[in-house]
Amino acid sequence: MLRICSRPLIKVNMMKPCSSMKPAAATLGAGRNLTQQNRVPSLPVPPLKQTCELYLSFLEPIVEVEELKHTKKLVAEFLKAGGVGEKLQRGLERKACNTENWLTDDYVKFEYLDRRKPVVVHSNTGMILPKMKFRNKQEQLRFSAEYIMALLKVKTMIDNDTLPVDYMGGKPLCMKQYDWVLSSCRIPGLKTDSLVFHAKSSNPPKHISVVHNCQFFVLDVYNSDGALLTVDQLYIQLERICDSSPQTNTEPIGILTTQDRDIWSRAYGSLIKDEANKESLSAIERSIFTVCLDRAMPPEPNEMRHNGILQMLHGGGSQYNSGNRWFDKGLQIIIGEDGTCGANGSHATADGTVCMGMGDHTVAFMMKPVMKPEITPSAMGPLPVPQKLHFNITPQIKEDIEQAKQHIDKMARDLKLKVTVFKHFGKNVLKAHKISPDAFVQMAIQLAYYRMYQQCCSTFEPASLRMFKLGRVAAIHSNSRASATFVKSFDDPKIKNSEKVDLLEKAIKAHKLYTNMAVNGQAIEGHLLGIRMQTVEEKISMPEIFTDASFIKAFDYQISTSQVTSMTDCLACVGPETDTIYDVCYSVLSDHISLIVSRFEPPNTCNEKNVEHLIKAIMDALLDMRTMLELQQAV
Prior knowledge:
Blueprint: E1 11-12, H1 34-37, H2 48-59, H3 65-78, H4 84-98, H5 104-113, E2 125-128, H6 137-159, E3 166-168, E4 171-172, H7 177-181, E5 184-187, E6 194-197, E7 207-212, E8 215-220, H8 231-243, H9 261-271, H10 275-286, E9 290-294, H11 306-313, E10 331-336, E11 341-345, H12 352-367, H13 377-380, E12 387-388, H14 395-414, E13 415-422, H15 427-432, H16 437-453, E14 459-464, E15 473-477, H17 481-490, H18 497-519, H19 524-537, H20 549-554, E16 559-563, E17 571-573, E18 582-588, E19 593-600, H21 611-634
Parallel strand pairs: 7-9, 9-10, 14-16, 16-18
Antiparallel strand pairs: 1-3, 2-11, 2-17, 3-4, 5-6, 7-8, 8-12, 10-11, 13-19, 14-15, 18-19
């Protein structure tokens, strides 16, 4: 269950391979600064007894008493000396000794490549920049050229190992994910997908792919001497592309990437039977990144960037820009005619914080004073015309495209997303009360959900595992015994305010403890996944604790959360991973809190339990919890 990691834990200093991955690239990140990278330790295997005890404690607020009693018996049996649990734990520890990271391969496969839901909304991350003010098409293309150049400069830093190292708590983080974002692509397959990486191959790509009016082009971004094209040259090439791709009835081949993975896999198999199609697909997959030159979306009713976020997540449907995409690419940058711009990234290749870090570095390059580039002989020569990619569309592929249009239009219609700025207070007020801002918001979300549903739920918050080699993310379980006690007591008039404050402090203390454990490689979900995968490797029957109803409830998250902040005013956005989950993306700033809440709400959804109500419940909870603190302070 992967979301964007909690950004405040990671500091980006702006001053100073999976078994299911295809062998298109050699060793990933082989040239990384070894002095820093070698300081990054391998992921530890947590003690099995500790994980099982934590597992039971997380279950307590969300399962019935009899269910918990049954699960405790199963756990006790699993932990018996000399039993199956001990055997699997030893096997996992041996695996950890022989691999850089015992979890990442299984994690990527289980959480992404095996998932059959579409990557659009359910998996990919979005990032939106502050809106630009383009007066015409030329300004859109000029900005696009500058954006491309800035991102290519970031690529040069990655290639040359000069990208500043990210730190968490003063410790360097694994930087290899930056090698995976560019020149990468997800390839659909039946039952499971694969990832291809070309950046470190013997013939790394020198081109980007550009899509305009659903028509794809190859644009070489290096001159014959290996130097990058200038911004002026990129502008000329983009102008040529737009002139060569008028708005026509071209079949939007990219819309196929919005489909369920098995459906897309079958269509992909049909496409590559044709040699021209196969070459065109290869050109897109090998490209450094994709540039999407979008049509304008409907005008915004306010300044909340609602439509812009949807444009980054799914393109707005078939009538707008959903076909002007290749959602399998590691990174797409998106620039609309109306000034809406940002990016969409594959979560399978890299975590949201890495994509946001690349975005911050790119924006930082764009904000630097532009120096007149030195004109080289190759820069003065004629530019090769960008190559238009052609697809032969059979009647079956045409039918697949029509089905994909219907599918993405339903998804765009059913996805409800609301952006709100809570202006009453931010982290300054919470720090004055000596309270963790992140933990405070998490408890407010718990309280809001309890007020709406009269029950506690399994809640996910991600923590970065990049303190370890090849680390991805771990789950912080915001629901705990302490949080359940707090939310159940909050509206009880018989309980004194001082007791409620004490319960909040205990809940926050528990949340901080679990956060620290997760960041330090002691989270339970990844460990239990590793143990489950070990049963397959050792050909052992699946232990009952993994087929128990409680196990499903423990990780059947009803709310997925992520706190993400940007150093350059970019805004991260993600969608719900399943059709029933709420996704809450928030950012706690000095004097306000930004909230983006999304959920799938098909027609006839219960009107009393929806995105609007959850946002209101969260804001009410934030205000009520602050009032509680102030009442106690006044005593």
